Amino acid sequence: MTAIDNVELEIGEGELFGLLGPNGAGKTTLISILATIVQPTSGSASVCGFHVQRDQDKVRRSIGIVFQDPTLDDELTGRENLDFHGRLYGLDAATRSARIDDVLNLVELHDRRDDLVKTYSGGMRRRLEIARGLMHRPRVLFLDEPTLGLDPQTRRKIWTYIRDLNDAHNMTMILTTHYMDEADSLCSRIAIIDHGKLVALDTPSGLKERLGGDLLELEIAATDDAFLDCLRESDDLTDMHLDDHTLVLTVKKGEAFIPWAFEQARAKNVEISSVSMRKPDLEDVFIKLTGRTIRDEGVADSRELVRIYTAGRRR
Question: In 18, 48, 177, 308, which residue has its Cα 20 to 30 A from 284's Cα atom?
Answer without folding.
Answer: 308
